[in-house]
Amino acid sequence: MKEFKTIKVTKGIKTLIIDNPTNYPLIGMGSQGAVFKLSEGKCVKIYTDQLQAKMEAEALKAGQHLPFFPRLYETGANFVVMEYFNAPTLKEYLRNCTYIPESITKKLLSILNAMKDADFTMVDAPLRHIFVLENEELKVVDHVNAFKRQHPVPLKLLRDLNIILLKDSFLSRVKKLEPDTFKTWEKYFDKNSFDYKNIPVTSGGSGKGVKVESSVTQPLIGKGHQGAVYRISEDKCVKIYGKPGHCKQEKDVLLANQHLSFIPTVYKTGDQYVEMEYLIGPNLNQYLKKQSNLSEDITKRLLDILKTMKKAGFKQIDAPLRHIFLTNQGFKFVDHVYSYTRVQDRPLELFQNLHERGFLESFLEQVRALDHKTHANWTKEPIPLSEVVQAIEESTVDKNQRRKKEKLPEEKKSWFRKEYRNHVKDRRK
């Protein structure tokens, strides 16, 4: 087997680029690097930045006396070899819990206190970095920022517990077990109370998403080209925009259409934010990933939304799958920044999304049966799919037709297939 040092990990535009000529399986990937399993007891983390590799190596060496640290075996310029844990993360372990066990709370407090005693400045760990072994023994990984970031209270831990509705349960146990610790945390949060009106969200420039402040403790549930969305309570979220102009555009659409069932309820607005209802449920893209066919009920709901948008004066008639949420109150449609300003009379992005899921043909057939006039308007001109998709389709036509066409060179067809896979992967993120 080839040496793991031949594996190369570099930063791409949206994700890491991995060149792995070995048989070591990829078991994890984050913003700093990728993790590969070497054996039943060892794994290697390979970093894109040698400085981050050095920072984590120093933190791991400093924490080898701590029982919850992974054992360190070897370090290099861009890697660390450490103990491998074949166990669920604490996020997975607590998935179906309605309250947090006292035993887990005690162990988490013990870990946080030990980090503080070891002079780590980041006294914190997100749930996905904590593994639960036999007898509820906890192990914590990813310590690259242990001496860099300032987290005197467990901001990420509390954020993650809040997302799975266990924060209050955890804090009530902390108050009982360590009242002084609870008071310290309480003072910190009183002093640094969440004021979303002052959260710095800046535009990332043309074609790039907005930039957000990583130290914000509230759960970041979405981020795109125009703004970032934070969950601020059980049933509310706030969208903060990089540009006031985008805020005004979406605010105008939302406030003018609160009577429409698919528009989220708005509670409060400002020059650069909109506070609205938090939508509980999967988006339609996530839902359709698990379906083998497209139900007529979904087609009818989508058609009703699009026709209602047109009647209500929307100029951009489109409903991308990732912007539609399945809630107890029916479909809810988010992201209306361009609904009044961008002229588009056909749901082109929806067509593209459904094509990628393999449902476009059945969707159009069902629309034709439900509303022949709308179907005729949508299909009077060819539906423009992406260039890569069209190229794939042209290279996979019926055999009899293919003989009449000029054959694509094999290397070009291979390129098309690769580009199409990458295209679909990007669209599904």
Automatic annotation (TrEMBL):
Listed SUPFAM superfamilies: Protein kinase-like (PK-like)
GO terms for MF: kinase activity
Superkingdom per UniProt: Bacteria
Protein name: Serine/threonine kinase
Keyword annotations from UniProtKB, A to Z: Kinase, Transferase
InterPro entries linked: Kinase-like_dom_sf
